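== Sequence and structure of one protein ==
=== Format: two labelled lines per protein ===
==== Data for this protein ====
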Amino acid sequence: MVTDLKYGGLLAPFCLLRDGEVEDLAGAAAVLITAGVNEKTGGAMDRADPAGRLRLLATNAAIYRDIVPRVHRVAPETVIVVVTDPPDPLADLVRKLGHDHVISSGTYLDSLRFRFHIAEKLGTSSVQVEAQVLGEHGTSEVFVSSAARVGGVPLPEPLTTAAARDEVERKVRYANITIIEGTGASALGIGYNRANHDSEGMMDPSANGPSP
């Protein structure tokens, strides 16, 4: 996998890609943890199940109990970025395991998806859209449609009806399941946005979007 990524890395800002051991993380500014089962492997593919990604918590918590102490031992000051689902409960677990510097990917990807589907519905660029999803990265997430803006103004037609907004919210809420049904895994979108968000944040904190 690392060899494959190296060839694509030529098109990115300078970076060094290599495989290694946990000990190689000593002195790292940030460590992203993506290990864990996804909805398909963890039995969370039912759109009608209110538990959603929370069904993955027990399995992925066991994986974090193995990984986090090893990371903390060699890099106690690093910022651990939790990418594994469900991210917020796992971030709490990281703190309980004694590592204080931790952030969750939270609903950052959901907000990007929300912007995308608003723009798609309106036939405009997502760059023009400001929209936030708050709460859990899962079925209980909250779409702040009342504060969404397109070109600085409130949502226009056809997104002024509850039915149109529900359609957009459903696409966002179950995006992971839709992607997994088609490809078996949802990794590219979250991988791209974490690489972009976290690398920009380390070089220039003011370049970051909304806090994850």
In short: Residues 26 and 94 are 18 Å apart (CA to CA). Helices lie at 2-9, 39-42, 57-74, 87-96, 108-122, 162-173, 175-183, 188-203. The domain at 2-104+184-207 is CATH 3.40.50.720 (Rossmann fold). The chain has a mean pLDDT of 88.
